[in-house]
Amino acid sequence: MRTNTFLLSALLLITGSLKAQTVATFDDLILSHPDTFYVNYTAPGSDVGFNDGLAHFPCVYDTGYGDTTWSYFAYSNLTDSVTSGVGNQYSAKTATGFGGSANYVVVSCFNPVTYANSVILNLTGAAINHPVSGFYVTNNTYAYNSMRDGDMFSRKFHNGDWFKLNVQGYSGGVLKPDSVTIYLADFLFPDTTMNYILKTWQWVNLGSLGNVDSLQLSLSSTDNSLFGMNTPAYFCMDNFTTDETAGAGALHIANELTLPVAKIYPNPAGNVLYAEILQNSVQLVSITDLSGRIIASWPVTQTRLELNTSDLAPGTYLLQLSGNGKTAGLRFVKQD
Predict the structure, then answer these.
(1) CA–CA distance, 218 with 71 (Å, rounded to integer)
(2) pLDDT (tens digit, 9 = 90+) per residue, 42-86?
(3) Is residue 176 part of a domain?
(4) Which domain holds residue 236?
(5) What is the C-alpha R_g of the chain?
(6) How far is it, in rounded angstroms, from Cα 94 to Cα 147?
(7) 191 and 310: one domain?
(8) Where does a domain end: 247, 282, 299?
């Protein structure tokens, strides 16, 4: 079975102690005015990135191609979710940061030295050699519209296509084998009505990577040529969250179900949340609030459940999945 961790958003602790976290919201990073972005054009070829929370987000730009090109991380408050093309490379398809915030990060996932579609960010201070809880991710407008419509470099996505982000951790300079994969576009469903290109903020849980001191973020696509990936190598990030007081062992759930457990969509949810059950051992699903209070429960009688969420107040909830004495939890957001 294909492992798809998109929308297996935020596998959370059902048991265990509370842990201190630091969230890089990027909202305290100064932008000169609304609808703009920031790249420090002062030192070509050098790291002109920025720090927020307990992480360093590098940025390198080059003027050797007749214009200015950049790679890695820039921060933005652009709201243009409509305009296609590379001229709109600094905007998120959501038009805002997570939760309607102004600022978010745009990632140009291209290494100008190795020519690989991967970048690295480094943890700082107390976060080094501790787990990263995760971050929110969505598509960049340029990449989203390119997959939706095609352009002079890339083709329109069709059945069988995908665009995904893979995250791995480094510890002590060594790349660890475990990884988390997030589908930014998924056209692999037998039921083609379920095909999607991500256009909402989705949580990416990285607790399974354990203790790390940096992360490698890599993009790949089914649209490639002899010169590499045709799909624009961009995505957007918000609320990068480190877990500096926890050890890797603290992220293990006692009696946890083996991943992947389920996919849930849409997220954020409106009046209906769909759960596609991926394990036969799941017997019961329950919606709980973040304190663990059970709001509603349903027996698992089929692999695709339609859950009524119309009575839920806007906010964040867990979909708890149980079976054979084991549990796992998926976080979702209920919106108005």
Answers:
(1) 13
(2) 777 788 899 999 999 999 887 666 556 788 999 999 999 999 999
(3) yes
(4) 22-247
(5) 20
(6) 16
(7) no
(8) 247
